[in-house]
Design a protein that fits this description.
This protein has 10 helices and 12 strands. It is of the alpha+beta class. The chain has one domain (about 10-280). Helix 8 crosses helix 9 (about 245-250).
């Protein structure tokens, strides 16, 4: 089994969580997804994931601590990630950043998505990668799993791009994603004085998902930046109040969890309404 092969549809949720977890320390995390739409409905997804060496080391040390406290099974977590090791180390985690692993992420983004470019990052105390994917039809994108938001594009004057909320999709009840991060989150929640420890561990975590449309936005149900970019999700761990709230954020597994998270109006968390979605018109 290859690194990353078993986490399937939960991979993007795991990666977002991993990015936040390894962000311990100051300004050491950066994760950006940008969907760039073309007029014909095709486009690209640029994905940048950079984490600090210090944060990566602290992440693996935390897993070791949880394992010593018998709150997680370190070997099982490694196996669930497709890593051939009984002990998680910064070196073993880096297998998730290889070109091969990043290329396999394409299948979770959509059936016709392919990796165009890959650039490993190893500079100024940071590790990670930058990737560019290509898709043929934005309506077939699956950002994070089968039950998550779907795009619906209609070309015209003006053109329209909608984000269909998961709670309107057939069969969403009971749908969920599974992530190797789940036992880690559960273990952190059972630690003594978990709130303060989690706050420190997750310090500096930032994750953003945005879509850029061609032309100029003339109407949008979400705030627009730079004339044609709409932010769909923005998470700033430093602004999220309390470690237990951060764990709740990373524990989202199904549409109703996402809806409850949105309704809680948590500082530092910007999301599209899971019950209403969003629409942007442009020309």
């Amino acid at each position: 089994m290859r690194a990353g092969e078993r986490y399937g549809k939960g991979w993007l949720r795991f990666l977002a969580g991993l990015i936040v977890v390894v962000g311990a320390g100051s300004g050491c995390v950066d994760a950006k997804y940008l969907v760039l739409l073309q007029e014909d409905g095709s486009g690209t997804i640029s994905f940048r994931c950079e984490v600090s060496e210090r944060g990566l080391a602290q992440f693996t040390e935390t897993i070791g601590l949880l394992s010593t406290m018998r709150l997680v099974n370190e070997a099982e977590i490694a196996t669930s990630l497709g890593l051939r090791t009984d002990e998680l180390t910064p070196e073993s985690i880096r297998q998730l950043y290889t070109r091969e692993s990043v290329a396999r992420m394409a299948k979770d983004l959509g059936a016709d998505v392919e990796l165009l470019r890959y650039q490993p990052v190893s500079e100024q105390g940071k590790q990670g990668f930058r990737a560019l994917y290509r898709f043929a039809n934005i309506d077939r994108l699956r950002l994070g799993g089968d039950w998550t938001y779907r795009f619906r594009y209609q070309r015209g004057t003006p053109s329209s791009l909608r984000l269909v909320p998961p709670t309107t999709l057939s069969g969403y009840r009971g749908a969920s994603t599974v992530s190797p991060l789940d036992p880690i989150i559960e273990g952190l929640g059972r630690m003594p004085n978990a709130d303060g420890f989690v706050n420190h561990l997750f310090s500096g975590g930032q994750v953003r998902l945005a879509v850029q449309v061609p032309g100029t936005v003339v109407q949008s149900t979400k705030p627009v930046t730079d004339g044609n970019t709409v932010v769909l999700a923005d998470i700033d761990a430093d602004a999220v109040p309390g470690g237990s709230t951060i764990l709740q954020l990373l524990s989202v597994k199904e549409p109703l969890d996402l809806l409850a998270l949105y309704q809680a109006r948590i500082p530092g968390v910007v999301l599209v309404d899971p019950a209403k979605g969003m629409e942007v018109r442009f020309q």
